[in-house]
Amino acid sequence: MTAQESISRMIAQDLLTIRAVFFRPNEPFVWASGIKSPVYCDNRLTLTAPKVREDVETALAQTIRREYPAAELLMGTATAGIAHAAIVGHLMGLPMGYVRSGQKDHGRQNQIEGRLEKGQKVVVVEDLISTAGSVLEVIEALRAAGAEVLGIASIFTYGMKKGSDRLAAASVRNVSLTDFDTVAQMAAETGLIAREDLARLLAFRDNPSDESWIGA
């Protein structure tokens, strides 16, 4: 097992232990986009679990040092990525800021909060990647402001083709601590879900718009 695989399984176990990942293949969740999903991931719960929080932030810092050694600034996504960017920035001795989902309608009308110099090498800190739409809006705002975006460091990715294709089209690299497949496999190993449901979960990941997995 590689070091990255070990980290992936550790973080997956952490998320399952604190019930940051919920599986309901027979009673799907409905995302804001309308997609019906057998799983819901709430990484905000990592902030209220000190041991898990330490694992996550340490792993993010290690990942950024390894994958983006030229990083000069961390930028969190609003709102879920802000706390993680702040903690990891502290661990790494790097400045941090965050990017709003839209410009403020008062004051300086900032969308980017924190000092950003043109040409500065930035890593975006995100809690999870699904279809990648929101994080790409953040990257677009940073690039428009003159940042050199090295890539994304995220806690969890669903590994959806739509998200991967969008990131590739925008020439954006994402490195996640763990992923949907690892979490689902460990949930099956530990009896949190039935092994026969694993195929249904992976069918959802392959094509979320095809709801045939629901009645499978």
Attribute tags:
21% strand; 7 helices; two-stranded antiparallel ribbon; alpha/beta; globular; 216 residues
Q: Span between N and C termini?
A: 33 Å
Q: How many E-type strands?
A: 10
Tell the overall outline: globular
Proportion of residues in β-strands: 15-25%
- Tally of individual helices: 7
Rounded to an integer in angstroms, the radius of gyration calculated over CA atoms is 17 Å
Rounded mean pLDDT score: 93
Give the strand order, joined by hyphens, for the main sheet.
Answer: 7-6-5-8-9-10
Give the class from helix and strand content and strand pairing: alpha/beta
Main sheet overview: 6 strands, mixed
Helix content: 25-40%
Order of helices and strands: HEEEEHEHEEEHEHEHH
pLDDT < 50 runs, ≥5 residues: none
